[in-house]
Amino acid sequence: MMAMATPAEAVAETPTEDLQVSEPSTDELADLQKHQLQNPWKFWYFENNKDRTWEDNLRVVSSFHTVEDFWGVYNHIKSASELKSGSSYFVFKDGIKPMWEDDKNRQGGRWLINFDKRSARFNLDTLWLETLLCLIGEAFDEDGDDICGAVVDIRGKMDKIAVWTGDSKNKDRILNIGKKVKERLQLNNQVQMTYESHSDTQVKTSSAAKHIFTL
Ligand code: MGP
Q1: Can you give the residue ranges of every domain in the chain?
Q2: Which of 54, 84, 90, 107 to mutate to test the pocket of ligand 1 (most atoms within 8 A of CB)?
Q3: Are 169 and 107 in contact (CB under 8 A)?
Q4: What's the mean pLDDT in 63-88?
Q5: What's the gap in Å between 94 CA and the centre of ligand 1?
Q6: Which CATH fold would you assign to the domain 34-214?
Q7: Residues 170-208 pLDDT 10s
């Protein structure tokens, strides 16, 4: 029977010139000490400037793929409630543009929650942060594959939070995601969440698009 080398002997037998271990750079070391997220994300800001097209009003704020870098961005920028009316924040998986036209959104839709500004019941910043923590903390398990991103819109009477998913026909995933959002945001029966496809949103003629699901 062939004798097996113990790990120490195996190392001793390895010619040293084969052990080309390069030292990590300072940036790599700093990154290794941080907590990696399952997905890399991008933070976008939309400012409503009527002189520009909708797409030109979208700007990337920052990319992040660690917990620490998320807080670095989040704590550095204005909270959602401080934004001017007409503005939005978008947080989307890196590689997905926060627009209907992106291939990953084209067949998708959104869970939409409207918050009446006159109601003191809701703290928009807390709800938006909780939405982001659901996304980056992968609260949706395997249904999270369908998550594209989330949006907070600051508007006149109503502010809105939406979670965009990639397949408006995947009923099970949509409902699982919606229920999880409702539970984590502790909305209970205080507010209705509605799911609409982006294709319906684009052709809506009144203030609301067709509701495919309601929770
Ligand atoms: P909005 O910002 O989502 O809603 O879309 P708002 O401002 O509350 O208005 P309402 O229509 O819901 O009452 C406002 C407008 O922005 C849309 O009608 C489009 O003209 C444009 N827009 C919004 N989105 C998300 C997109 C997008 O993904 N692609 C393009 N091309 N335009 C968009």
Answers
A1: 34-214
A2: 54
A3: yes
A4: 96
A5: 21
A6: RNA Cap, Translation Initiation Factor Eif4e (3.30.760)
A7: 999 999 999 999 999 999 887 999 999 999 999 987 778
